[in-house]
Specification:
The complex is a heterodimer of chains A (471) and B (345).
Chain A lengths: L5 H15 L5 H17 L6 H20 L3 H23 L1 H14 L17 H16 L9 H9 L12 H4 L11 H35 L6 H32 L17 H5 L4 H12 L8 H20 L3 H23 L6 H23 L3 H12 L11 H21 L4 H6 L3 H18 L12
Chain B lengths: L2 H25 L10 H9 L8 E5 L2 H6 L2 H8 L2 E4 L8 H10 L5 E5 L2 H4 L8 H15 L2 H16 L16 H6 L19 E2 L5 E2 L3 H4 L1 H15 L8 H17 L3 E6 L4 H10 L3 H11 L2 E4 L19 H17 L10
Parallel strand pairs in B: 1-2, 1-3, 3-6, 6-7
Antiparallel strand pairs in B: 4-5
Helix pairs in contact in B: 2-7, 4-15, 5-7, 5-12, 12-14
The chains are: A mainly alpha (471), B alpha/beta (345).
């Protein structure tokens, strides 16, 4: 089920009505939320709920054993079981065809002719999110960082909680399971703020991403021609905005919906396009994934404890795997590699040059960071290397002879939206929506909110899927 | 901050704005309208899973969609018509689906619009891609998508501004479509003239030409302008042999299953008739297809009563004439020995 759909609106009203009715005890409310979460997922593809159940049962069992087992070898075996099941799901469902293709290519390279039929596998929605979330539980249990979930119901709800099930934020057990232990009820202010966040999230997705930017980005990246520089840049900028609004929109909806239930989810985005440098970017973009990769990949790989070279290797590996997490294609690996290189270069430069950040050089550096991020988006969005190559060539060699695929108004529309996006990120860089809202006049705030609602309604949207569902 | 106050301000202002928006569009002459979208098509396709003995299926493009009036067909033949024609499309992907994925072996009427039927078999070309995407959608649609459609129907029926079209030609008034109508300096391809709505469809995909197309000539002429632009463009040469052979192969399989296949060439006039006569000569295209497929066929030019029909925009019949066309066609088919209900699932 998609947040930007009529069925979800009906679903949410029913869930909220049941949640706040006096019909159920807290345990039964949690059961209701769990059932609602399975319905939320199952309305897309019912049989794939089984994967959620397997992941839940395996990690619940592993977690329980890890809580009591003292034998280190056995503890490792339980952790391994959890990893094999979760990463096995990922490997099969997400990377099956990619691995097969590359295996075939390798055989071909050494002269062995092997024809493999691509497997007809459905990619379960949000599999990368819930497997990472549930794995964090067993890893933390293994490292004795958390207490086991008190009941199976609490754990199952942690794995399946519908607001963040299919596209995050990837929440750690310590931050979410404990919230299920005692009855939760949103205060009036929390409920209204949650409703506002849901509105903002839907506005980002339906109006900004789908209505204003998606078509331009699709036209440019769908073209087989070598494009005019202006078209290539406009398409790339449009995608940078589209993916931010699409993904941040989902996260904002998720946080808002959870808050309407009295559950607090962590922030996933903090105005990333105002980041100064790439370390800063990854503290602002998809925060729940970057902290996951930091805690469960970068630090176990040695982090910065084993010298500079090992640190750079760990950083590159983390970013390469982070790229691959997004999709089973080499273009995503290149995207990750570019981010890894940016991070390495930034650390090298920071060790040599000290710059005091001021408002003037800050905005220049933020703009530079944003432009470099745009280069990586080309690889992220292009389905084939040849498209990415043509786009980069058009962008950097000022190709004025290339094909023009965009009309004047498309270009103006995208540039205006992106200018507003960048400026608002810069202004909001060190604050939050909540802080700004507190200083606002409630009536003016209501007018602003009503404009968002009106634009969502007239944009209508066609229930476009969120980009990150495929990851 | 008092969020409760903000919330109620939002509620009131949003309601006022939405009601005003609805009134504005109604004042502009827009009426609530069901969209001929993928869900409507998929719901009709689903009926084939449990078809009745007296089912008749129609495939083809928009001409058969407009020109066969399903209520007339149902009354005059005592059959249950299922309309699976797709606007701007070749019938081959849908025909292939019916032949290969269903047990249907009743009456199948294929509308032949030469420019689309003989155009191509290339999967990425729009006459093939569009119907194939509907077939794929039917198989892949989720329960959530079905539910969304069910919930959207009452909104489509009661709100003029709420549209749910899939195609660029749908006359939606959503924000994206409205923005796309803004034309500044032409930079890439030439701007198309506005494509005004000329469809009224029911949930059963019974299509009618809106009355305005008959009473308002200037309005009908805007559609003609679109056709002029479209027909003035460059088209690859038709793939006559390939499309004919692909169809004939499917026709043979369908007939082997016991199915009764009928070809119908619906009327055209004006620029369309001219272009079709020049580019798709009857003997080379239609006659050859009929001969190879070896099925009953009906070309509108062969019947005197179809000589003076009203096609307000050259390609589709006015509702009144579509009713006449349907009734007359049934008479002709009956005289020709077409059986309307005989098969069982």
């Amino acid at each position: 089920m998609l947040f930007n759909s009529l069925s979800f609106m009906v679903f949410l009203v029913i869930v909220l009505a049941l949640y706040y009715s006096k019909l159920f005890s807290w345990n039964n409310k949690k059961r209701m939320l769990l059932l609602a979460s399975y319905i939320f997922y199952g309305l897309w593809n019912p049989p794939l709920v089984i994967l959620l159940w397997i992941s839940t049962v395996v990690d619940w069992t592993a977690g329980k054993k890890l809580a009591i087992e003292e034998n280190q070898r056995k503890r490792k075996m339980w952790l391994l079981l959890s990893m094999i099941v979760n990463l096995g799901f990922l490997a099969f469902f997400k990377y099956g065809n990619f691995l097969l293709e590359n295996f075939t290519s390798c055989l071909y390279a050494i002269g062995v002719e092997f024809q493999a039929q691509p497997m007809d596998i459905i990619l379960p929605m949000g599999i990368s999110f819930y497997t990472f979330q549930t794995m964090s539980y067993t890893i933390d249990m293994y490292n004795r960082k958390i207490e086991p979930a008190r009941t199976f119901l609490d754990f199952a709800l942690y794995v399946t909680f519908f607001p963040q099930l299919v596209a995050g934020p990837i929440v750690r057990a310590k931050d979410l399971i404990t919230q299920f232990y005692e009855e939760k009820k949103a205060s009036a202010n929390q409920f209204f703020w949650g409703t506002f966040l849901l509105t903002i999230g839907l506005f980002q997705k339906i109006v900004l991403a789908d209505t204003l930017l998606a078509e331009t980005s699709d036209t440019v990246f769908g073209s087989k021609d070598v494009l005019h520089s202006l078209d290539a840049w406009t398409g790339t900028l449009a995608f940078s905005g589209q993916i931010f609004f699409d993904f941040a929109g989902y996260s904002t909806c998720a946080i808002g919906i959870a808050l309407m239930l009295g559950i607090i989810l962590p922030d996933n985005f903090k105005y990333p396009y105002a980041a100064i440098g790439f370390s800063d970017l990854w503290k602002r973009w998809h925060i729940s994934l970057s902290t996951w990769l930091r805690d469960y990949l970068y630090i176990p790989l040695g982090g910065n404890r084993n010298g500079i070279i090992r640190m750079y290797v760990a950083l590159m590996l983390t970013m390469l795997l982070g790229g691959l997490w997004h999709g089973a294609a080499w273009t995503f690996v290149i995207w990750g590699a570019l981010h890894g290189i940016y991070l390495v270069v930034e650390r090298l430069l920071k060790s040599k040059i000290k710059i005091k950040i001021t408002a003037y050089n800050g905005i220049f550096l933020a703009l530079l960071t944003y432009m470099l991020v745009n280069v990586t988006w080309v690889f992220f969005r292009a389905r084939e290397f040849v498209t990415a190559k043509n786009m980069i060539a058009s962008m950097f060699f000022m190709n004025t002879e290339g094909t023009k695929v965009l009309q004047s108004f498309d270009i103006i529309k995208v540039l205006v939206v992106i200018l507003i996006l960048f400026t608002s990120h810069w202004i909001m860089r060190n604050t939050s929506m909540k802080a700004v809202s507190k200083k606002s006049n409630p009536i003016l705030f209501g007018v602003f909110w009503a404009i968002l609602v009106f634009l969502i309604v007239i944009a209508q949207g066609s229930g476009e899927q969120f980009i990150y569902f495929q990851f | 901050m008092n969020l409760k106050l903000s919330f109620f301000v939002t509620l009131i202002l949003s309601l006022v704005a939405i009601v005003s928006w609805e009134c504005y569009w109604r004042y502009q002459g827009l009426e609530p309208n069901i969209d001929d979208n993928k869900n409507l098509w998929a719901n009709q396709r689903a009926k084939l899973e449990n078809f009745q003995a007296n089912t008749a299926i129609f495939i083809g493009s928009s001409r058969i969609l407009y020109d066969i009036q399903l209520d007339v067909w149902e009354t005059d033949t005592n059959t249950k018509p299922i309309m699976l024609a797709v606007q701007g499309a070749s019938p081959i992907p849908v025909f292939k689906d019916i032949v290969e994925k269903t047990n249907y072996n009743g009456l199948l009427v294929v509308g032949v619009t030469p420019g689309l039927f003989f155009s191509t078999l290339f999967p990425e070309a729009s006459p093939i891609k569009r119907p194939q995407s509907l077939v794929d959608y039917y198989y892949n649609r989720t329960y959530a998508q079905r539910l969304n459609h069910k919930l959207s129907v009452p909104l489509q029926k009661h709100l003029a501004f709420y549209r749910d079209g899939d195609e660029s030609w749908d006359s939606d008034v959503d924000l994206k479509t409205l923005l796309n109508k803004i034309q500044l300096k032409e930079r890439s391809e030439p701007f198309y003239p506005p494509f005004n709505n000329f469809e009224e469809i029911t949930l059963e995909r019974h299509m009618k030409m809106p009355e305005r197309m008959i009473t308002d000539t200037a309005y009908a002429n805007t559609v003609k302008e679109v056709w002029k632009t479209l027909l003035g463009g460059d088209f690859p040469p038709p793939e006559r042999e390939a499309t004919t052979n692909a169809f004939v192969e499917l026709a043979k399989k369908f007939k082997d299953k016991g199915g009764q296949l009928v070809l119908v060439r619906c009327p055209s006039s004006g620029l369309f008739k001219e272009a079709e006569s020049k580019g798709f000569s009857r003997d080379l295209f239609w006659d050859e297809l009929v001969k190879k497929a070896d099925v009953k066929s009906y070309h509108y030019m062969d019947y005197e009563q179809f000589g003076n029909l009203n096609l307000p925009e050259w390609s589709h019949l006015s509702t009144e004439d579509a009713r006449f066309f349907t009734a007359e066609l049934i008479k002709i088919m009956k005289e020709d020995g077409i059986s309307f209900n005989s098969k069982t699932n």
